[in-house]
Amino acid sequence: MENSSREVAPKTRGAVLKWQAPIYDLECALVGLRKKFRRETLRHAQLSPGEQILDVGCGTGVLTQLAAEKSGPSGKVVGVDPSLPMISLARKKAARAQSQAEFKLGVVERLPFGNETFDVVLSSLMLHHLPAELKRQGLEEIHRVLKPGGRLLAVDFDRPGHPLWWLGVWPQLFMPALVAIFAGKFQIIWLPRASMRSRQWGGGSTY
Predict the structure, then answer these.
(1) Would the pTM count as exceeding 0.85?
(2) Does residue 198 come out as left (phi exceeding 0), alpha (psi in the -120 to 50 range) or beta?
(3) How far apart are CA 184 and CA 168, in angstroms?
(4) 10-residue mean pLDDT series, the chain (207 residues)
(5) Do the beta carbons of residue 128 and residue 205 sit within 8 Å?
(6) Which of 6, 32, 73, 129 is the most exposed place for a label (fewest CB within 10 A)?
(7) Phi and psi dihedrals of 110, rounded to 5?
């Protein structure tokens, strides 16, 4: 395990969740984003044993650990996040679970990996933290680290379809990027060289 006390969090213009780390999993559970949701995400990713997988904006590492179970001992799964508290907690949870998932500090616009490293990149509820230009930079970086024929699964919020959802999301309305999403103005960015499709799934958007 890396020594987080010596690490320096990278700078980014995207939103970084720090103080939320100890209660993040509870917050997710309260709005229905439990392991069932994460497993459904991975079902769409269609992961196979032995694959090299990157989880961008991994948070506390719940999805990353589940992906590591899918890839097995012959694969490799790495989660990156710009928040040191999130990464520290993710490492502790992985150690307790004896998971092979690895965790690194990093930002999507400057991924610390070589070209064509990964078979799959996962992005779960991360894109809404980025301003529009940073989304483009991040997707270009994701395309860079994907192997030829690799795939990206990005899942994010859409406009709430039920009035009660507004009770859960109102604390986040101070974030301009989220306001645009909840207003139904999420910008889909198409990269000329990337093969990406957009479809609706479970009230959110999957890219």
Answers:
(1) no
(2) beta
(3) 17
(4) 69 84 79 80 91 95 95 96 94 96 95 96 86 88 94 76 55 53 47 41 41
(5) no
(6) 6
(7) -145, 70
